[in-house]
Fold this protein.
Amino acid sequence: MSQRFTRLSRDAIRKLAAGHSISEHGITAERLTSGDVRFSVNIMVNGRRVHRVVGTENEGVTRRQAEEVVEKIRTDARADRLNLPTGRKLVLTLAATTKNYLARLEQSGGKNLKVKRQHLRMHLIPAFGSKTLEAISQFDVERYKRDRIAAGAAKATVNRELATLSHLFTTALEWRLIDRLPVRLRRFTEDNGRIITLSDGELDRLLETAIAGPDPQLWLFIEIARATAMRHMEIIRIRWQDCDLVARRIFVAVAKTGSRQQPITQHLADILKRERAMRNDQEGWVFPARRAGSSKGHIKNFEHQFRTAVITAGLDPKIVTPHVLRHTAITKLVQAGVDLFTVMRISGHRSLRMVQRYSHISAPHIDAAIAVLDETSPELHHRSVP
């Protein structure tokens, strides 16, 4: 807490003449005409100047106590408990509020911190950063949405950015930085679109292409994806130490809905056992980075390699992406009659509503289900219609 003072030293304070003052580090010592010395503080906190009289030497106040007042003001400001006089409001721009917002999220273990930081840095601060929270209008938000779509962003992407902005507004309201939410954030209606899946023959062809291809890791990525419905990033972050191949479980530490235990098939467990036995590192990354010393430690992604394999297998790279393997696996589970709650537990979806998209109305299991209604008693078919 103690700072180095060169001007506002105790000796300099004692030598102050009446009517003169010395200021340093936001603290001022002033010699009054009565001979007493009055201490005050004048500092900037969160973009606002705070001035307070601490007291006089006759009241027992020293420079050290003035230092403590400065530290308390700054501590309270960090905790967003700055007790300014009634009627005075702490006015912050979105850019200034963002610093406290992200710091709080980091300290409290907030969700999706990396994504929120990216939304703010790349899009929200450039668009709204110079405005105070209360000055952001409906027109500003609608213009932002229009500009982002014009720049090629998907509606779902813009909605995620607006969700970050909404959370910042709500948090600022809880901190009493604003009296009310400044604007109603109307999000786009998202089109879930057609779910692309691969047939068994297409899957086999893709896998064969990967095995014969130049990337020695791609085939295992495809095997895991088709047998688990795991997401692309979840797969490349697997460590051998997270694989319990006896219980047939993979611990997914980082996922959209939080950590989970991913069940795997016996066939995949056998494949992983054989692969692990051939590795020098049997505890580290299943998909280690190609270059030693990589900051991530694991491969970045399989986008390029996968696209090459798709083209070689005679499939359309515009629609067949790594995520299609996840769609295919989930669709197979639903078509096999697995209840949606169980599918949700396997796929790691956040809600049943997301899983319901895979219940294709044209799927064979739907046709089989509706056929049950035709299985009436035989004698009823012989009754004459009156």
User: Anything to note?
Assistant: Residues 84-88, 380-386 have pLDDT under 50 and may be disordered. Residues 157 and 250 are 29 Å apart (CA to CA).
